[in-house]
Structure formats: C-alpha cells, structure tokens
Amino acid sequence: MSKLETILQEEVLAEIKQIMAEAEEEAERIVAAAREKAEAMVSAQKRKLEAQKQAELHRAESAAELAVTTARVEAKGKIIGQVYERVQERLRALPEDPGYPTVLERLASEAVDAVGEAEAIVVNPADEARLKGWAEGKGLELRTSTEVSLGVVAVSKGGKTQVANTLPDRLDRAWEVLSARVAQVLWP
Q: Are 148 and 109 in contact (CB under 8 A)?
C-alpha cells in the first residue's frame, strides 16, 4: 500500500473514531437526560399519589368522624327519649300518689285564675271525686271528659274561653328546657 493510502486510511480511521466518540458522548447525554426526565416523572407521580392518598385519608377520617358524631347524637336522642318516656310513666302513676289531690287542686286554681270568671272545670272521670268538694267550695260546675288527663280545663262564663292546665301539657311545654338540662347532667 502506498504511503498516501496509508495516510488516508489513518485519517479516515481517526475521523471514524472521532465520530464514534462524539456519537457515544451524545448517546450518553441523551441517556442521562432521559434518566433525569424519567426520575422527575417518577418523583412527580409519587408526589401526586401521596397527595391523593392524603386527600383520601382526610376524606375517610372526616366521614368516620361524621359517622361517630351522628351515632352519638342518635344515641343521645334515644336516651333523652327514654327519659321522656319514664317521666310520662311517672306522670301516669301519679294518681296513685297520696299527694295527687293536692296537685289537682293547684292545677285547678291556676286554670281558674288564668281564665278569669270561671263557670266550670272539666276533669277526667277518674278525678271527679277528688275535685268535687273543691269545685263546690268555689261555686263551680264540675264536668268530666275522657279527653282531659292528669289535670283540669277551666271554662269561662259563657264558655268562650278555656284554659287547660294538665301535667302532660306542662311537660310538653317545658320539655325543650328540661331535655337540655337532662343532657347536661348525663353528658357534662
């Protein structure tokens, strides 16, 4: 081979080596950039998934707290309802108490005072004997009705005005305040 051919061949080989070295460097830069981009994407996806996980955990905790609160409120309501039922049972048993006639007289007096000029009082037939003497002493007609329970209804002259004063009505009117007090006692 001639010297010229040898020089040309060496130059071509040198140029091929240089092109190959540059190509390898470029390939390494591309691979490194791709790795960085992939790592960034993986990292971003991890952050996104962690944020979603935290949001789901927060939603689940909130739902659980709401369920617990709802269960507590329902349980408290049920207990308050049971207290109300027991109070009503005690009221229904009150006619057996020796002090019940005195309670009836007080209820009758309050109703008569509230109606102004009363002509009659209405009581449950079971309470007629308990208030007969009291009504006669006040000059009032004594009427009976099964619709009146644990109390009296005072009727004004002419029958235009009536005032009911029964223990169940009084309990119903006071229950909101009483139930709040019961709740304070049970759940301080």
A: no
